[in-house]
Amino acid sequence: MSALILALIAGAVVGLALGALGGGGSVLAVPALIYLLGFTPAAATTAGLIIVTATSLTALYAHARSGTVRWRAGALFAAAGLLPAAAAGAAASRLPQPILTAAFAAVAALAAVGMLRPGRTAAGPATGGARPVRAAGTGAGLGALTGLLGVGGGFLAVPALVTVLAFEMQAAVGTSLLVISANSLASLATRSATTAGIDWALIGPFTGAAILGAWDGKRLAAKVTGTLLQRTFAVVLLAVAAFMLVDALI
């Protein structure tokens, strides 16, 4: 199968995940770029940020039209992660490739386990002002994760918005896309040195397919229960994490 076809298929899957779950696209994008398209881990994390930024902005527009984005609270949550994202992005290029791969696999596995655990429901509509110190700390942690590993952090942002800021699930999914977009842009600003290893002939189609997939994911989320989507994604994520961890240790 040609690299172009693989890029289109992988992009569609990434977009579906982002559109339906408000996150998770990057934890599939980076392994796909490494193992299907032959990118180095450093180039894959940078390319993953490019793909996820473009796709998240598209999905954010779709959710904004539906009124499921809490702009003020989301902007404050994202602001706490901007500096950590930029600092971690600058540090990522200095880390050995196996360490990046192992760290990515560990985070993906933790995210999958969290998705398989029984969810905690919000206590009520979000006010945007609940637990500001904890919210800032969580936002900073997500920013650092985005910068270091090239992931948008949506798979962590959604549960954080539900439990820390008491968002209802639909608002958490929509608002997480604002957080992902801001953190990814901040991290990309520090990664200009690693764009040299990116094959734009593959990243362009990958990104285009992901953007189209995000719209389909938004429609899929309205038809299929969130629990089923989340658990299916978690099982796939566990398999990917196990493969990457073994590859990093061998």
UniProtKB/TrEMBL annotation:
It is a multi-pass membrane protein. Coiled coil: none annotated. Keywords: Cell membrane, Membrane, Transmembrane, Transmembrane helix. InterPro entries: TM_pro_TauE-like, TSUP/Inactive_protease-like. The chain crosses the membrane at residues 39-61, 73-92, 98-116, 137-158, 198-215, 227-246. Its main location: membrane. It is found in: Cell membrane; Membrane. Belongs to the 4-toluene sulfonate uptake permease (TSUP) (TC 2.A.102) family. This is Probable membrane transporter protein. It comes from Streptomyces griseoaurantiacus.
